[in-house]
Each structure stands twice: as structure tokens, then as C-alpha cells.
What we know:
The structure is a homodimer of 204-residue chains. Helix content of chain A is 42%, strand content 20%.
Amino acid sequence: xxxxxxxxxxxxxxxxxxxxxxxxxxxxxxxxxxxxxxxxxxxxxxxxxxxxxxxxxxxxxxxxxxxxxxxxxxxxxxxxxxxxxxxxxxxxxxxxxxxxxxxxxxxxxxxxxxxxxxxxxxxxxxxxxxxxxxxxxxxxxxxxxxxxxxxxxxxxxxxxxxxxxxxxxxxxxxxxxxxxxxxxxxxxxxxxxxxxxxxxxxxx
Amino acid sequence: xxxxxxxxxxxxxxxxxxxxxxxxxxxxxxxxxxxxxxxxxxxxxxxxxxxxxxxxxxxxxxxxxxxxxxxxxxxxxxxxxxxxxxxxxxxxxxxxxxxxxxxxxxxxxxxxxxxxxxxxxxxxxxxxxxxxxxxxxxxxxxxxxxxxxxxxxxxxxxxxxxxxxxxxxxxxxxxxxxxxxxxxxxxxxxxxxxxxxxxxxxxx
Lengths: 204, 204
């Protein structure tokens, strides 16, 4: 594909992939835009249009092969091979993330964890043993990791994010409720429950 | 306002409100679309256009009053008064959410928590004392709460969500990595770190 796909479409592909994972778990082999539409609460036409951006995945009348579409979407999103991820900040939220089973099989392994609290260093959570944040740069560079989850307090988030970028991180999932100012080529996504809640209360 | 504002614009208003909160903390009284643009990584023209949907908040040349714009955005998003929220599922993620300070002053108070684990019932996390999930419907109805955060395992999420709807919940923030099938008038937003990560790896 040489044409640029709008970011808003890219943003929906992981949602399709997630639903496909569940349909597969339910033992299904094929699906249709109508079924995806019901699961996702978006129109079937939208789904067909999005998927057609990448060439035709479905055949008229037979729908989509779930294994095939899954494989293709994984390729498009570059999660056909898993990414190693660093977890920066191992407080209560960080611990919950370290133990979260939902990364498995969806393209991500948390392999490094850092915290500034000496009490935390050396402790094991999920698959990680917490390293001191003073070793963050050297450990990240040695590992070649390019994706990090940032779960430090808001007051520290910008400074730590700047350090992550210098250590070669290219994508940051930011849980701190502050907007990071980073070079344009760095990808940042935000997880903030308040933003999602406010987006719903508008309609209540 | 009688005209319908597109959902995509509504989705950006909480982001503006979040940045305004930080600018206020920094001691600023006024801001401009250019400053908001730099903090948010979106175009100043987009921000001006979004805000103009609700009438003019800024004056040419003097920018936006931060307290005024904050107040107006809170009104629009219906967070000028705080909402009581129920937390359903008090596992590691639920505990982290119960202790999270980021809800304060942004329109939400977690006042009820439920879990099916008898070991959890009666324990205090943040401001909540965990109640048995068997009492969920009666407690929700008595409280009149309409917003819930769902942090139960994926295998239980649909059943619990159905129960929440019957108990009067109108908006669910779903942390379980499964798509809920609910009546159309129920608002659902999803928090799934994998979706956000996949959205970034596409570009790496």
C-alpha cells in the first residue's frame, strides 16, 4: 500500500482485531460486516469501507475468513510479531498492568519495569523484575525497546518521557493525566478514564 | 444549543478541559488556540472551529479566559456538578482506580464498589468499602447512580453489564477487553491499552 490511510481508520483496525479474537474464541471461522457491526456498534458500511482500504478481504456472500482477516490486520498493524514493552512506574496502576493477562497474544510483552522507589526495585510483578529508574536509559538502549507505558505521577511524566525519547523510545502509552510535549515523530496515546467518562456524561 | 454537535467534537472537549486544568495549575489566566494546539498536538484551526460550535468563547486578539472556558466546557459536558460513580470489580485494576487521585475535581467521585470475592467485601480502598456483588442492584437503585466503571474479568463482563443496565446504569466505562452488547441508549466507552498500543505500532 503506498497511499496514506487516514489515522481515524487506523484507529478502528485494533477494534476489529479485538472482536475477531473473540469470534475466534467462540469457535467461528467466518464473519460478516453485519456481525462485526453488531459487536462494535458501528455501521456495517463503515466497516466494509475501512477494510476495503487495504484491498478486499471478503468475498461477496461468503463474508470474511476470521483467521485470514486476523492475520492481515496483524500485519497491517505490525503486531504479527510481538513487541517488547517497558513499563515505567510500578505503582498500583503499574502493578495491575504488569499482571494484566490481556496483552498476551495481542502483540505485546512487558519485559522491563522501572521505578524510582527503592522498596520496589528487585520485586517481581508478572514477568518483570523492577529495575531502578537510574538504569532506565542503559537498559532500554541495551534491549532496543521502542514502546513504553508511562505510569508515573503527572508531576514526573514530562521529565521521564524526555528521558525515554533520548533512550530510543518511539511510542509512549501515557497514563499520566498530563499532555506530554515531545518531538513530532514520537507517537503518544493517552489513557485517561476521566476523558472517557466526560465523553459519556455529555449525553446523560 | 439545539443543533447536534458531532460526537467526534464532543470527544475532543474533555481533552481541552484537561489542558485547561493544567494551564490553570501553572497560574495562567488566559490562553490561545495556538497554545492549546501545542499542548494537544492538534491544529489551532481545529480547536477554534470546535469551540466555535458552542458560540464564541474567545475574543480576537485576547484569547480565551481559562476560568470562563473551563466553566463553559464543564457545563457542556455536564460535569459542572460531580457524578457519583460505581466501581464494579475490585481486583488489582479496580484497587488502582479506587486509589487514583485523578478523578478529583474533574467531575467524578467513586462512591460504591462491588466484588464477588468474599475476601474483598468490607475492605476499604480509597473512599469505598467493597460491597458484595449480590447487593449491586439494590445499592445502585437506592443511590440513583447512573455511571459505572466495569473492571471485572472479560468472561463476566457481559452478564454484569446486563445487570448494571437493569439497575439503572446509563453509562459504562468498560475495562474488560470484550465488546459489550447493550441497548442502544446505553453509553459505553472502552479502555483497552492494547488497542492504543496497536494504534501506535502501525506507525513504527
